Amino acid sequence: MLISPAYAQDALGGATSTVMQFAPMILIFVVFYFVLIRPQQRKAKEHRALLGALKRNDRIITAGGILGTVTRVKEGSDELEVEIAPNVRVTVLRGTVSSVVRPVAANDTVPAKS
To answer: In terms of domains, do 62 and 94 share one?
Structure first.
């Protein structure tokens, strides 16, 4: 009963076991970076470029789902004037624009099914 238990140790004194304990967490972080963080950063960069390229007569969709046409871009400000119906103009913040509606060209039409 007076004999203490003996535990086996590797030649490096347990340094490799510490690294091996953190290896799964490092691997999980790397996977999260390439699967979640990096694509989200790319999408945010594209959205900032889209907002910076807004100009007059662009058809836009706001975050609230309102379709409209940009009638005036106020330089040096985050505001846009958008016409949502004939003679109905509202001022919206540039950040609320979720997308720009691109017109479909005449030669890009989808052929009818027969």
So the answer is: yes
**pLDDT for 54-110, tens place per residue?**
999 999 999 999 999 999 998 888 899 999 999 999 999 999 999 999 876 656 555
Q: Report d(CA 97, CA 55) in Å as an integer.
A: 12
Question: Which one-letter amino acid corresponds to residue 12?
Answer: L
Print the domain residue range for 65: 55-104
Cα–Cα distance measured from residue 106 to residue 58, given in angstroms and rounded to the nearest whole number: 18
Closest by alpha carbon to 97, among 56, 44, 54?
A: 54
Q: Reduce the DSSP state of residue 90 to 3 states and report it.
A: strand
**Environment class of 98 (CB within 10 Å of its CB; exposed 0-12, middle 13-18, buried 19+):** middle
This prediction's pTM: 0.65
Phi, psi of 109 (to 5 degrees): -70, 150
**Alpha carbon distance 58, 50 (integer Å):** 11
Q: Specify the number of domains making up the chain.
A: 2
